[in-house]
Amino acid sequence: MGNRAKQLMDQGKAVLFAFEEAIGYMCCPAVLDKDGVSAAVITAEMASFLATRNLSLSQQLKAVYDEYGFHITKASYFICHDPKVIQQLFDNLRNYDGKDTYPKSCGRFKVSGVRDLTTGYDSSQPDQKAILPTSKSSQMITFTFANGGVATMRTSGTEPKIKYYSELCAPPGNRYCHLQGKCCLEMLSMPNSYSLEV
């Protein structure tokens, strides 16, 4: 992230913000790395600026949601020490309603695309072959929803974990976006069905 920011800056481009979901934020080009101190200073600067307009941080966040929509992300993991259970979980997702069928919906949310980087399948491509690199030695399935939501489940390369990520940028006024995150969690991870540790 910092190296890429430096490359862009060397090309005369302005880098305003970068992040890695699991590690942190780079919100100041003076420090080309994830840095909690600069993040705290910029948050304080923003709070001070908003105070001159009689606004709080939460009021400004609501104004952003009202104008641009509600953005929600959820990233977490389950612990599973049994490789057979992990394989069964992913096999069940790949054979959801019969051989080689993935889930078509998650509650009221319709699945519009599936990318499986373990098998090399991508329903969004004309030849149904994934463009991104594939690996049979690790599990990774991404579901795209008709409403723009995305959910990915993958195994960790270094720990006995099944990681999941879901995100949705809902249009202004959408009050159901939190339901998709909950629904994805139930469909993708199925912790009770597989006795996964939270």
From TrEMBL:
The keyword Ligase does not apply. GO terms for molecular function: metal ion binding; phosphopentomutase activity. The lineage of its organism: Eukaryota, Metazoa, Chordata, Craniata, Vertebrata. It comes from the Eukaryota. Pfam families: PGM_PMM_III. PANTHER family: PHOSPHOMANNOMUTASE 45A, PHOSPHOPENTOMUTASE. The keyword Magnesium applies. Residues 7-68 form the Alpha-D-phosphohexomutase alpha/beta/alpha domain. Keywords: Isomerase, Magnesium, Metal-binding. GO terms for cellular component: nucleus. InterPro entries: A-D-PHexomutase_a/b/a-I/II/III (IPR016055), A-D-PHexomutase_a/b/a-III (IPR005846), A-D-PHexomutase_C_sf (IPR036900). GO terms for biological process: carbohydrate metabolic process; purine ribonucleoside salvage. This is Alpha-D-phosphohexomutase alpha/beta/alpha domain-containing protein. Gene3D superfamilies: Alpha-D-Glucose-1,6-Bisphosphate, subunit A, domain 3 (3.40.120.10).
